[in-house]
Amino acid sequence: MARYLVTGGCGFIGSHLIERLLAAGHEVRVLDDLSTGKRGNLPDGVPVMVGDVADAEAVRAAMSGEDGSGVDGCFHLAAVASVDRSREAWLETHHANLSGTIAVFDAARRANPAGPVPVIYASSAAVYGDNPQMPLTEDAATRPLSAYGADKLGCELHARVADGVHGVPTAGFRFFNVYGPRQDPKSPYSGVISIFAGRIARGEPITVNGDGEQVRDFIFVKDLVRYLTAAMGHPRPGAPVYNVCTGRPTSVNRLAEVLAELSGRPLDRRHGPARPGDIRVSVGDPSRLVATFGMSCDTPLEDGLRQTLAWL
Ligand code: NAD
Ligand code: UD2
Fold first, then answer.
1. Higher pLDDT pick, 299 / 112
2. How far is the CA of 288 from the centre of ligand 2 (A)?
3. Which residue among 192, 218, 275, 305 is best mutated to probe the pocket of ligand 2, counting the most ligand atoms within 8 A of its Cβ?
4. Are 193 and 305 within 8 A, CB to CB?
5. ipTM higher than 0.90?
6. Is the CB of residue 173 less than 8 Å from the CB of residue 17?
């Protein structure tokens, strides 16, 4: 059994990852500033250090632990996970999203007397920006449109430095649109599925931005965390990155219709203006993921949506 640090562990994806790590018998501790995460997302007894991932001292302390026990690896998920927020607070989100990642890589190289420990970190499909290739393979051109996407691309570049210069093994995962239980439906920065699911379940109207024919590749959170844990078991040289996606496109309109059908509620759909800079098509090619880890993201959208609605 191993001991891991999970940054951002009180958040949506982090809490599912921790559930899986604990079920496998691992020991976990968390560094989180509780800006969007909640302690209540985690079972009692998981130690949470409240601190900023961009604070190098806090990250070092979290990796070494109060008793100096160290860790066998780090899952790095802490970030301001919002494109909109990165527009409003450019420098502040940059600290969390890129400086925080460098702080994690830096601490990982000194985390153990035995040598650097692996870091599995969250990147994003936002690194592709407006690249219209469909589906997107990992070697498609990266051209981020947002500070969020630019910082995630920066994380991938620094992962190469971590690996090549400092011997820190890493794996980066370009998450496409993740959904599932515990994605906060009340946050204005939340994903479309949790916003629509919450509103439809309460009998409230939903607002579709633009014509609703933009498409996304929605991935169920419980599928995603299997790759993170698998990657920790098999660190690979060369700072690899992987799309985490299904390869299946779903339009925003279709999503709204399926959610209304599953919840047995009438659909009150209104159209608002298109979101500035909204990406039209974002669908990933999961071939590298499947070939490397031998499993695909197989939860059908309707099953994942049912589980999401049941949680509300
Ligand atoms: P989330 O907001 O639920 O989780 C992020 C966690 O990080 C929260 O617990 C928050 O309190 C914490 N955090 C934020 N800033 C911090 C800081 N400076 N120091 C310490 N902790 C901090 O979001 P999520 O959806 O669970 O995202 C997890 C990761 O996945 C992020 O890196 C995000 O960029 C990435 N990601 C998410 C999606 C998605 O669709 N949800 C898509 C692509 C990438
Ligand atoms: C997602 C991620 C982001 C980044 C990006 C990668 C979330 C919350 N954000 O951004 O972190 O990784 O993917 O490209 O998962 N929409 C509506 N009405 C609403 C809300 C959204 O029509 O009330 C539309 C929105 O305009 C967009 C689509 O739904 O076309 C998806 O929006 P989103 O905010 O869930 O995610 P996205 O793809 O912008």
1. 299
2. 24
3. 192
4. yes
5. yes
6. no
